[in-house]
Write a structure and sequence with these properties.
By secondary structure, this protein is α+β, with helices and mostly antiparallel strands. The protein is built from two helices and five strands.
């Protein structure tokens, strides 16, 4: 059977604080690691989705409503549901799992992810990814 969790694959987080949020697999660990001997993935996702905007709004209001709050987390495959979608450009964020332990590196990675997500959102690409999942 082929590998499902590849970098760039859009997944839904099923459990925990970010349950119901969409995320992108940044790096996958099918065989596990020394610390986590099970299949897991480093994912970058959206914690707070952008709000709806329309033409009557001013520039400032549009800018404020277009903000995205991302998260970066290592999750077990059991807590991820892969979708048929994949995103190519958003996986450029260079994040190593060991960087997630250092608060400053994690903050920097989250900022880079936010910049990438907002840039992609403003281009109007991958609209499905930037909409809240209704369930």
């Amino acid at each position: 059977m082929g590998k499902i969790m590849k970098p760039g694959k859009v997944v839904l987080v099923l459990g925990g604080r970010y349950a119901g949020r969409k995320a992108i697999v940044v790096k996958n660990f099918d065989e596990g690691t020394g610390e986590k001997p099970y299949g897991h993935a480093l994912v970058a996702g959206i914690d707070r989705y952008p709000r709806k905007i329309h033409k009557r709004m001013g520039k400032g209001k549009m800018h404020k409503r277009s903000k995205i709050k991302p998260f970066i987390k290592t999750l077990n495959y059991n807590h991820l549901m892969p979708t048929r979608y994949s995103v190519t450009d958003l996986t450029d964020v260079k994040v190593a799992p060991k960087d997630m332990r250092d608060p400053m590196k994690r903050k920097k990675a989250r900022f880079q992810t936010r910049v990438k997500f907002e840039e992609r959102y403003k281009q109007g690409k991958n609209k499905w990814f930037f909409q809240k999942l209704r369930f």
